[in-house]
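Entry:
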Amino acid sequence: MKEILSARSITKAFDKNIIFKDLDISLEEGETLALLGPSGIGKTTLMNILSGVLAPDSGNVFLKGEDITSKPGHISYMQQKDLLLPYYTVIENVALPLIIKGEKKKNAIEKVEGYFDFFGISGYENKYPREMSGGMKQRAALLRAFIQSEGVLLLDEPFGALDAVTRNKLQKWYIEISKEMKLSTVIITHDTDEALILADRIIVMNNASAVKEISIYDKCKEYELTEDFLKKKKEILGYL
């Protein structure tokens, strides 16, 4: 596969607290990469650097070979909360990134409406966020992120606020949709099971310099029931 996003020699500190030191990571086309680690380890800081909203102390971020260090707006970044505007309809929320970029509202809505069925929220176009379940709101938020993504998504615990049953359903749904649409995704999680279920590769983080990579390509449909799943989970937990 071809590399689409990379961070090279990233160093970041707040006061004298070093978050990363000479960190290298990469994302390939069509791949899901999970950043796994305990709270406070710097996962969101790294995501902010990848998205361009936070500058590293040193190092660079590249998207398709272009240096986008400290340049926000090149990659779609979805945080844990859906952040749908309550006074906009769902389709207006989804079309908002295009409108902000200068598209006429009518044209923007026409461009996004064809994706509603694919994202499993057909029929909700003219409803308001308050009329949707938590899972449906996340699907709408993911669609909005996709609309402005150009195929690369940064997701900060997108399913973390959902109940276990809904979270599991959306995890499996996202696996299918990311394959179908050839999405390249970096996802933050502190849940080992979620990382193993969703990701092709996992970057396990436990301090500024200790980073371990685990690859799990070509998973079967019920991977979480296999011996390899339990083996890799034990390996990750031992590292953390």
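The longest helix spans residues 164-180.
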